[in-house]
Design a protein that fits this description.
4 helices; five-stranded mixed beta sheet; alpha+beta; about 140 residues
Length: about 140
């Protein structure tokens, strides 16, 4: 499933804007994410930290959780935005979470603090992965 230039523009704009909603008083590391659903909706998330560090939730998982609870099960693309250069990629836990709901060819657009991006597929981010279809 590919995305149009207009969808990519909206996806990136929403992911970058979502950083403003991040709750990150400890790390000061803002992350925003936006998922494009197969039905054309854009769902955002931001990281939410906690004084008990392992309890924090990454922006990608916030976005996917919000999408799943809203009834979405099929997705076209994900954008993740940070303030650093080069752009940060999803952590290992997020990679497996993303893979739960996507296939190996699913694109992840990673934006740096200047708005430049790198795109990788889930296969590149999580080689030899497994998903629900493998169980």
């Amino acid at each position: 499933m590919s995305i149009t230039a207009q969808e990519l523009e909206i996806l990136s704009t929403k992911a970058i804007a979502a950083k403003a909603s991040a709750y990150c008083p400890y790390s000061k590391f803002r992350v925003g994410a936006c998922i494009l659903t197969a039905s054309g909706e854009f769902i955002v998330g931001a990281n939410v930290e906690n004084a008990s560090y392992p309890v924090g939730t990454c922006a990608e998982r916030v976005a996917f959780g919000t999408a799943i609870v809203a009834g979405h099960k099929e997705f076209k693309a994900l954008a993740v935005a940070t303030d650093i250069k080069p752009a940060a990629s999803p952590c290992g836990m997020c990679r497996q979470c993303i893979r739960e709901f996507t296939g190996p060819s699913f694109p992840v657009y990673m934006y740096d603090g200047d708005g430049s991006y790198k795109v990788m597929t889930m296969e590149e981010l999580l080689p030899d992965s497994f998903g629900p279809g493998d169980l």
